[in-house]
Every structure is written in structure tokens, then in C-alpha cells.
Amino acid sequence: MKTLAQFSILLLPLLVSCQHPALSVEETIDEKAEALKTEILSAGDLTDFSGKIYYVSSTLGDDSFDGLSQDKAIRSLDRVCALELESGDAVLFKRGDVFRGHVKTKAGVTYAAYGSGEKPRLYGSPFNAVIEGEWTMTDKADVWVYSHPLHNDVGTLVLDDKEAAFKVMMVTQDDGSTTHIETGAPFSGYKDLDRDLDFYHDYKDTGLIYLCSKQNPSDRYNSIEILEKGHIFSAVNNVRIDNLAIMYCGSHGIGSGTTTSLEVTNCVLGWIGGSIQGEALFGRRHPTRYGNAIEIYGGCSHYLVDHCWIYQIYDAGITHQYSSGGTNSVIQTDVTYSNNLVEDCVYAVEFFLGKADSEDTERYMDGFLMENNILRRAGYGWGSQRPDKETPAIIKSWGHWNKASNVLFQNNIFDRSTHNLLNISAHQQEWLPTLKGNTYIQNRGGKGGQMGTKNSPYVFDESFSSVLKELFREDTGTICLIEE
Questions:
Q1: CA–CA separation, 19 and 98 (whole Å)
Q2: Is the pLDDT of residue 110 over 90?
Q3: Is 416 left (phi over 0), alpha (psi -120 to 50) or beta?
Q4: What are the residue boundaries of the structural domains of the chain, listed by start?
Q5: CB 174 within 8 A of CB 168
Q6: SS3 of 91, please?
Q7: How many C-beta neighbours within 10 Å does residue 395 have?
Q8: What is the pTM of this model?
Q9: CB contact set of 313 (below 8 Å; sequence gap of 6+)
Q10: d(CA 271, CA 162)
Q11: What is the mean pLDDT of residues 252-269?
Q12: CA dihedral 369, 433, 428, 345 (to 10 degrees)
């Protein structure tokens, strides 16, 4: 893909001017992103723990140990989940080690890193399917079956950490027949696989994974990670997660319901999502997939995501959300997303709050700050495999009720989307956020966004600055029109 420096850029003079050399030559967006990534990857470890410290090492640990010293580290995530942790305790994972499985957090506990080297890696993928298990040719040419059945739906297969296999799902037609979700060809099972790197997971019956490949996948790749359904971290109240690499799962990297005080800092989250959320949601004739890097679904108070690098997510990089309906109270306060690099997700940031069925129910957001983030390339990642192509956006609030106050997005870089750059809407003008000093980058004539109280469409051209000023009071930002 072309970098920003390889395009001709028109800097719109109606807002505060941006010096051309500073943006596109001396310090391009790519360079800014790399600098932020380096800062995130080199972050130092937390040390402010008031309770016991437990150490975990997959290379040096033993689950028969108590974990209370580095030379008595425990080994597995199952053993971590079995610890009798108390508020103030910390669970520290050894840098350079890989851990596979899931963590059910406990209130008041910090999950972080110790040692030297790369961040500890926590994978939802149960296996590297090149190293463990075998791929065997089926009775269909160029279709291979993996030896380890899995009955939790697989979101995708990540090949050499570079690309995702295409997950074939079936679309049910009026006559009851089923077709390939992308090509439209008849499809009823693995024998209908005929496109290189399409895969089919028979999770309802045999649990077997079938991959179409021109050669044995174990010979073709060094790693095949399996994004099995499930969160890596299931978060509860008063939890800190710091300096971990959280990768390869089919649901959410960090998932939570209504939560008080969740802090995620200095983490890497990548290749997440794609598992089936439901078979017939929204009246569709095919399954609906999901998967966010960090999600709170429900109310929240003090929710911080800071200095995280998030990439290749099926849905959203960072989100707090709750749908319409019901009579339960949902209040979202003190939310901060700051200094994050989010790339190649369908939505970099997604937030929405639906209206309750009862007028007496409290539902609102109060105090949402998003600042100093670099949010790039919405819809450019592997989530582009989704059938609903007209959904990506850097910021995605949909057309929900979105009652809110004290919402400020400032000093962010919003860098390109395959669809809308911004989708920021609310049912009343005073509920819309204030935008201040942001940089907006999109192809000239592309989709600027669906915005405002009517969720109206706007083109990204010279008029976009006046739209931002009218809707969001943005008068200190910079528009960059890319001329391809």
C-alpha cells in the first residue's frame, strides 16, 4: 500500500495550516506511527503492587510451585486462574514467553510483565498448527484436514502472522440450498472448497478444520495460529492489564460487561475476532461474526486504554457500547482512550449507547476523552473479508441514541478508511462530541462520514471543514485531501 508520502496532498487552508514538509516528508504519518509503536514496545514494567506478586513462566515454571518467587514460578494460564488472588495482588508473566489459553481476571488484581526482552505473549490459539498436529489430504484434491478437532468456532487461521485464511460460511437460499458467502457458488461442506486459502470449520459436528491449499500447509507456512472462539482476558472490576501481547483469539482480546475501573496500558493486541456471534442475527441468512480487541459492553466508570498498539481486528480496536432496548440502567463515565496506535481494524474506535424501552431508565455517557491517538486504515485489514463492506470507519457510533455530555476528541490523527472516515451521530445536537485539533486524511471525493443528528452522508472535499465546524465545533484541525 502506498504511504502518505507517496501521494500528492492538498492541505485545506480553511483550518489551521499544516506545513507540508512536516507532514509528508520530514515526519510522515508512517514515521509518527513508528515512533509511537516504538514507545509502546519499549515501555517499562509496573512495580507499584501492594499485595502478593505471583510469577508465571511457560519456559521455567512448574504448576506445582506456589509462584511467589521467580525461581518458583508457575507455568500455565489454568494455574493462574486457580490462584486465590486478593485485591492488590499482581500476576506477572515472564517476558519472551508464550502462554496459550484464557484468563478470568479477579477484582483488584494487576496482570503485567517481568524480566527482559519482548512482552509476554498470551495467545487464545490452542496450537501452532504447523508444529502441533498434522494436515492430511482429504478425498478432495488440494483440501487438507487438521488432525485436532475443535468444537468452539474458529474465527480464522493466521498464516505466518501476515495473512488470514478466508472463512467460508453458508448462505441459506429460499429453496433451502446453501452457497459460499462470497462467491455465491453452491457450498455445503469441505468438498466444495476450491479457492486457495479458503477454509471451512465443521464446528457443529466433527469439529474438523479444512483448508484449501496448493501444498501441505505444514510445508507452506512456519506458523498457523487458530483463532478459536473465546476471550483471552475476561475482565472484572478494578483490573489493570499492562505490557502484555494479547493475540490470536476468535472473540475479544479483553472482554467485559459492566465494569468499574479497567485500565489497559502498554499492550499489543493483534489478530483478534471472526468467530460466529450468532447464526441468524439481524434477520440474516448467514451467521454473523464478531470480535474486538478491547470491549466493555454495558456501563463503566474509569475505563482507560493508553499506549496500546492494536492491529488486524475483525471489528473494533477499542469500544464501549450497549444496544437499544431493555429497562436496565447503563451509565458510562470517565472513559479515556489516549496515545494509542490502531491500524487495520474495521473500526478503530467504536462507541454507542442505545435507548432504553422505558423513559425513566438512566442511560448516558459523561466524560469521554479521546486524545493523541493515531487511528489508521479502517477496513484495510483482514476484517475486509466480512460480507458487509459498507461499514468501516475510523470512529463508529452508528445511528444510536448516544446521549452524552463532556465528550472531547482532540489532537488525534484520523488516517483513511475504505468507507466512511467518521460515523459520529447522536439524536440531539448537544450530545455530539467536540472535536479539536485533529488531523483528517482521506481520498478526495471519498466518504467523509455519516454524521450529526440525522446520520447524514458527507463527501470528503473542500466543504468537509465547514461540516466539522458546524457539527462538532472543530476549528483548529487540519484536512488532508489525498490526490491519487
A1: 44
A2: yes
A3: left
A4: 33-42+230-483, 54-123, 135-221
A5: no
A6: strand
A7: 25
A8: 0.95
A9: 269, 270, 271, 272, 273, 291, 292, 293, 344, 345, 346, 381, 383
A10: 10
A11: 98
A12: -80
